[in-house]
Automatic annotation (TrEMBL):
Keywords (A to Z) from UniProt: Cytoplasm, Hydrolase, Protease, Serine protease
Organism in which the protein naturally occurs: Prochlorococcus marinus (strain MIT 9211)
Region (Disordered): 413-436
UniProt superkingdom: Bacteria
GO MF annotation list: serine-type endopeptidase activity
Ranges for domain Tail specific protease: 194-384
Biased composition (Basic and acidic residues): 427-436
Name of this chain's protein: Carboxyl-terminal protease
A GO cellular-component term linked to this record: outer membrane-bounded periplasmic space
Length: 436
């Protein structure tokens, strides 16, 4: 009997040890769910936002998305920098340069640029190529150090102050190019024709001034010129004001210039489309559930006269939405060069600590169903290369070509509207002919 008790005691002891071990495992496993630090909470917040909206859902299985969350939360995160590094490490395997964390300083700079005021930097609008992650120049901003240096759209950034933009990522590269007026930055780039250059740029305040307009007069016609360089918050109102001024000046036709417009707020681009299209499809969006949602323009227009639209390789994103809508609805012919080809839409979310998270949530198609991601939009008429580097100036050859095209369009419309000459037909003959 004593041996039986002893055996039972050992058995119970083993069960107790196993139970305690299980409890310890449960507590260790459960700890991240119930005792997250502020940094871990931020990581989880970012993971949830991406998990709920990211366009390419198939990528989650490929990169083991849930395991990336678990791995990030197992790390001891005590500072904001550690949290940001963990989020960026979690996002990197998704392979989408536009789904990214914006640290507070970068997020504030982006919001400032969306307000359309001014920035301190070199004046480069950048994009990232999905195929290899390389950072490319969408366009230089007008009257900026980059424009003065004649940096071409489509150039690839190789180094920024000896650091690789491809390793830094889109937002960190943009942040390195911004800075106090008078400070300098050295960039290395490869031009579209393969030439490598090193350029020393001095940062300065760049006035974004996204909407510019003027009247163009010659012996035969009066034309309006409207240039939009980005779609920031106040642009739709500024466009309507500019169109009102041009209409008061009696313009017969309009040249809309979307060259080097790298996009901005999609909502702003859609509002500008309302100025030219009446109850017509503007864009279709496709989310990760493959649901296509056509978005029409509102009833009525602010300008319904003849127009032609200038585009180039710096025409991207929201400006491509507008260009594609004008072309597909036969509202305006596009002249110039092929557009950039960014057909992805991002949402921008405030995180709890003042940083931001951009997530690619949809792609867009033109009204005719064209997907332009990495393809761009072909103009109706290509204009002669090389492309002018000073859009809107008196030396702008493409603008001069657009003027000639617009004048020919107006002359053709006038000819079509001219009444048939009937001097050799008397009223009775004319009536008989009409009735027959």
């Amino acid at each position: 009997m004593p041996s039986t008790v002893k055996t039972l005691s050992k058995f119970l002891h083993k069960i107790l040890c196993a139970f305690l071990s299980f409890c310890m495992i449960f507590l260790v496993t459960a700890r991240p769910l119930y005792a997250l630090s502020d940094g871990q909470q931020l990581v989880l917040e970012a993971w949830n936002i991406v998990n709920e909206g990211f366009l390419n859902q198939e990528k989650f299985n490929e990169v083991q998305w849930k395991r990336l969350r678990k791995k990030a939360l197992e790390e001891e995160i005590t500072t904001s920098t550690e949290a940001y590094n963990a989020i960026e490490g979690m996002l990197a395997p998704l392979g989408d340069p536009y789904t990214r964390l914006l640290r507070p300083k970068d997020y504030a700079a982006m919001k400032e640029s969306n307000l359309g005021s001014e920035i301190n930097g070199v004046g480069l609008q950048l994009g990232a190529r999905n195929i290899d992650g390389k950072i490319v120049v969408i366009c230089p901003l007008e009257d900026s150090p980059a424009a003065d240096a004649e940096i071409l759209s489509g150039s690839i950034l190789i180094k920024v102050d000896n650091e690789s933009p491809q390793s830094l990522g889109l937002e960190a590269t943009a942040a390195k190019l911004r800075g106090e007026s008078g400070s300098k930055v050295i960039i290395e780039l490869e031009t579209p024709d393969g030439e490598q250059k090193e350029i020393n740029l001095e940062r300065r305040s760049v006035d974004l001034r996204p909407v510019r307009s003027k009247r163009i007069r010659n012996e035969l016609h009066t034309l309006g010129y409207l240039r939009i360089t980005q779609f920031s918050e106040g642009v739709p109102d500024q466009v309507r004001e500019a169109l009102a001024e041009l209409k008061e000046k009696g313009v017969e036709g309009l040249i809309l210039d979307l060259r080097n417009n790298s996009g901005g707020l999609v909502s702003s681009g859609l509002a500008v489309a309302d100025a030219f299209l009446s109850n017509q499809p503007v864009v279709e969006t496709k989310n990760r559930n493959e649901i296509s949602e056509p978005i029409p323009s509102n009833e009525g227009t602010f300008y319904d006269g003849p127009m032609v639209t200038l585009v180039n390789a710096g025409t991207a994103s929201a400006s491509e939405i507008l260009a594609g809508a004008l072309q597909d609805n036969s509202r305006s012919e596009l002249v110039g060069g092929k557009t950039f080809g960014k057909g992805l839409i991002q949402t921008l979310t405030n995180l709890s600590d003042g940083s931001g998270l951009a997530v690619t949530v949809a792609s867009y198609l033109t009204p005719a169903g064209r997907d332009i991601q990495n393809l761009g939009i072909e103009p109706d008429r290509y204009l002669e290369a090389p492309e002018p580097l000073n859009p809107g100036s008196n030396e702008d050859r493409w603008l001069q070509d657009a003027e000639l095209f617009m004048e020919a369009l107006l002359d053709r419309e006038e000819e079509e509207e001219e009444p048939i000459q009937t001097n050799d037909i008397n009223p009775e003959e004319k009536m008989i002919e009409t009735n027959t």
